[in-house]
Amino acid sequence: MKKIINAPETLVMEMCEGMQRAHPDKLVFIAKSKIIRRKTLNADKVSLISGGGSGHEPAHAGFVGEGMLDAAVCGDVFASPSTIQVYNAIRETKSNKGTLLIIKNYSGDCMNFDAAAEMAEEDDGIVAERVYVNDDVAVKDSLYTVGRRGVAGTVLVHKAAGAAAEKGLSLAEVKAVAEKAIANVRSMGFALTSCTVPAKGTPTFVLSEDEMEFGVGIHGEPGTRREETVTADELAEKLLDCICPDLPFTAGCETAVLVNGFGSTPLQELYLLFNSAAKSLEKRGIKIAKSYVGNYMTSIDMAGASITLMKLDEELKELLSAPADACGFKC
Amino acid sequence: MKKIINAPETLVMEMCEGMQRAHPDKLVFIAKSKIIRRKTLNADKVSLISGGGSGHEPAHAGFVGEGMLDAAVCGDVFASPSTIQVYNAIRETKSNKGTLLIIKNYSGDCMNFDAAAEMAEEDDGIVAERVYVNDDVAVKDSLYTVGRRGVAGTVLVHKAAGAAAEKGLSLAEVKAVAEKAIANVRSMGFALTSCTVPAKGTPTFVLSEDEMEFGVGIHGEPGTRREETVTADELAEKLLDCICPDLPFTAGCETAVLVNGFGSTPLQELYLLFNSAAKSLEKRGIKIAKSYVGNYMTSIDMAGASITLMKLDEELKELLSAPADACGFKC
């Protein structure tokens, strides 16, 4: 294993310290609970909290900032943060308008975020509503989930809900926006290589030189099937053939498209995949109103990518287009 | 070779098409000359053009936008764009205030950008001044250069000169800013793995599991020496031990620090390296006024990173802090 680290045990802590040192005017790192929060909080807007296992950078700490999250809770690599960590994040960002937790649908995360919300309500009288992102069309139930997994679409939920919260909407309204975003977002990914979890030190799985894992999860968990690699055009077609019928996305609908790298995919390949996807969507009559290309929800150093589509109405389009200032997000 | 492409021959063209399709409100791709330019040009500001071989994405097309470049000329992977391509870019972005070419110091780039500037002056009466970025402290002369190589520091030169041009400064003034930025910027990098040039299909070099190439170039060209891998803290120390004495950067000086990934390095490792560098700079009494962490000047899919330091005076600090809107740049 070749990594720029000091030791696997201190990786998450040092990475979070690095984020704070790099963005001292915008972020505060609370080491005790591994929370990254905005430096300047606004108690008159709904507080938005997300998080989960580390290893998905810039998710989620890179999405803390104006127009997006108020705090991100960082678990160990690919491990949910504890109930206490999440509880502390809720208290740290307490708002007069209440709190919304945006949770990726993994059993561990759901359990710990739910328990933290209940504690905050019982002990501190803080109302903490929850939404669960489950955009991955690859698998219905998986190693770590009941129901679908939450993957890159989560970022667009952060963006839409973040803009709604920044506008001063009520907790019920922000939650409704998040739920609408979740109901309209779908993703599908593939891996060309495995990630290597630092504490393990060896790749999670091995693919031969002409294989890809189709429908892979963001923790290196298995996808739907192992297949031969294909061209970028064929790949985009295959991914969209899984995504489009699911919602469905049909001719005439307007979308946001996110081509998300898994960590070690060069940007040149991501733009090329976006190009292939855009051509395929055009043939399907599906319009692209917003585009995002880059590393948003990674799987440490996995090579591969996912495509996310969000179906937009006027409200979602306006919220995605609102300004945001988070170190890991490009509008 | 596992890559998300259709064919090596069409990669650059399709990638550029993808950039335009992703950012249609901001970028125009002129396919004939492989130029990416701003959609809206302003003839009353100095035009800034950069470019070079492809494979360094987001450099340079990702830095086209308000507050940065007006156009980027895209060569084939790791090959200089031709004289005619650069000449067409100069004509495409003709301004009443003249043009500045920001060139990374490689023999091929210097020759072609220089010849294009001369053609533009002789044939069209366009004044196109040039500056040459040579921030890499690793090697004095190299495979592809007379003098030092231009690497990640180029991005900060784009930013400073771009902000100066946007303010409406004259060509001489913008050139002076660029030259000051170049005089004050130094970089040093290392590779943990080689890149794979698509047309070749195999890695440029091979490192064993405990080796790194110290002082590597951004085309996979050899560095100063092959060494054993070390911890992130030791790595930051070694890189800064090369960079700091060179200018020199001494106690009390203010800097911008860029930790730049080479393409397949996870963001978690880049923030960790930034953290190590920040601790080392603090011990040296060197202040960090601006920070950048991410993929800015890559080497396709190389694993590794570089550290860039720019010594700041009030003018450079103000210019780096000015707003910029380019799809590959995070302020």
Automatic annotation (TrEMBL), chains A, B:
<dbReference type="InterPro" id="IPR004006">
    <property type="entry name" value="DhaK_dom"/>
</dbReference>
<keyword id="KW-0808">Transferase</keyword>
<dbReference type="GO" id="GO:0005829">
    <property type="term" value="C:cytosol"/>
</dbReference>
<dbReference type="InterPro" id="IPR050861">
    <property type="entry name" value="Dihydroxyacetone_Kinase"/>
</dbReference>
<feature type="domain" description="DhaK">
    <location>
        <begin position="7"/>
        <end position="329"/>
    </location>
</feature>
<dbReference type="InterPro" id="IPR012736">
    <property type="entry name" value="DhaK_1"/>
</dbReference>
<dbReference type="GO" id="GO:0004371">
    <property type="term" value="F:glycerone kinase activity"/>
</dbReference>
<protein>
    <submittedName>
        <fullName>Dihydroxyacetone kinase subunit DhaK</fullName>
        <ecNumber>2.7.1.121</ecNumber>
    </submittedName>
</protein>
<dbReference type="GO" id="GO:0019563">
    <property type="term" value="P:glycerol catabolic process"/>
</dbReference>
<dbReference type="GO" id="GO:0005524">
    <property type="term" value="F:ATP binding"/>
</dbReference>
<dbReference type="Pfam" id="PF02733">
    <property type="entry name" value="Dak1"/>
</dbReference>
<dbReference type="GO" id="GO:0047324">
    <property type="term" value="F:phosphoenolpyruvate-glycerone phosphotransferase activity"/>
</dbReference>
<keyword id="KW-0067">ATP-binding</keyword>
<keyword id="KW-0547">Nucleotide-binding</keyword>
<keyword id="KW-0418">Kinase</keyword>
